[in-house]
Design a protein that fits this description.
By secondary structure, the chain is α+β, with helices and mostly antiparallel strands. It has eleven helices and eleven strands.
Length: 340
């Protein structure tokens, strides 16, 4: 699948690549202290470690010479994790001692998940800022129920035939629900584009893999090699599919008539970065993780482009005044992050 070049909108300014200014040596110290403190506290500190990690990456990610911000508190992350862990423990106990009740609880959870997803999306939006303006997310329960429960279930029942529909609907829901400065973020995706990616990147390689497997001699060595080949192929398919979806998103993302995005991400190049990152992490017993994360972030930012309208700064200024005048105290936001 050929990589597209960033499109240009003549009514906007010149395309500018986003920029990531993180330094491996600087982030390594944060990563190492996060790891050690998480081990010492038996995982409790990992909630604050996540906040430190995201703050570093957000604060070093620039759009039009301004960095993003991340404002969550470790306690909010910890609360969400404790709720998830407590729920899993409760379900496991119920499955062991009260099988009938367990089925009832699973049904309740099935209907609760869309609400929890909306809660997490709202939280992550409100703790993210750009130029001192917080993002917002406005979701609808039944739309989320259809998007994250019913359509994926139908995709499963149709043996993957509706998988591209499920993926497109998920992207639509997440991005079209975002708002910034009182303006809705919008994304215009087509089913045709997702089915094209699905056929080229998922179906064709898997059919090819199945064809090769049918000609293999049924021997123990062939079976082992076949299993390895399957895992390698599934990994490649998964990564390339995610890259292609990422490109579709950034080539169709915009904020009203204020900012548009485009992408020059190369699937082969990003695939090589991800693969070599994994090799480096394995060879260094995990010590290359900071280098790999910084490397990936820098490549993505270098290949995601933005164009802003001539009145973009005026729009920001007006939105900041409106936010102050209505007294939105986002600093006191008491939401929780459920990791969904």
């Amino acid at each position: 699948m050929q990589d597209s070049h960033p499109h240009q909108d003549l009514s906007f300014g010149e395309p500018k690549a986003m920029r990531f200014s993180g330094i491996v040596s600087e982030y390594f110290s944060i990563w190492l202290s996060n790891l050690l403190l998480s081990i010492v506290t038996l995982g409790v500190y990992s909630a604050w470690a996540k906040v430190r990690r995201l703050q570093y990456f957000y604060n070093h990610t620039y759009l039009d010479d301004y960095a993003f911000g991340y404002h969550a508190d470790g306690l909010q992350i910890l609360k969400g994790r404790l709720i998830v862990v407590a729920t899993l423990i409760f379900l496991n106990v119920a499955a062991t001692f009260f099988p009938a009740i367990y089925i009832f609880l699973i049904i309740i959870l099935f209907f609760a998940i869309p609400y929890l997803i909306n809660l997490s999306l709202e939280f992550n939006a409100k703790v993210t800022s750009y130029r001192n303006l917080r993002f917002q997310f406005r979701g609808d329960y039944w739309d989320a129920f259809l998007t994250f429960q019913i359509i994926p279930l139908l995709a499963l029942l149709t043996l993957g035939l509706l998988a591209p529909v499920a993926v497109k609907k998920a992207f639509d829901y997440v991005y079209n629900g975002l708002a910034y400065g009182g303006k809705r973020v919008s994304i215009e995706l087509t089913y045709r584009a997702f089915y094209k990616v699905y056929v080229l990147v998922v179906i064709t390689p898997l059919l090819f893999l199945g064809l090769i497997a049918s000609f293999m001699v049924p021997a123990e060595a062939s079976f082992v090699l076949g299993v390895i080949a399957v895992y390698v192929m599934l990994f490649l398919v998964y990564v390339v599919y995610r890259v292609c979806c990422l490109k579709l998103v950034f080539n169709n993302l915009k904020l009203a008539k204020k900012i548009v995005f485009s992408s020059s991400i190369s699937s082969p190049r990003l695939l090589w970065i991800l693969f070599s990152n994994i090799v480096a992490i394995v060879c260094t017993i995990g010590l290359a993780i900071p280098w790999a994360q910084v490397r990936k972030s820098r490549y993505l930012c270098d290949n995601i482009h933005t164009q802003t309208s001539p009145d973009f700064s005026d729009f920001i200024g007006a939105a900041q005044k409106e936010q102050s005048s209505i007294g939105e105290e986002f600093a006191d936001f008491e939401g929780i992050e459920l990791g969904l």
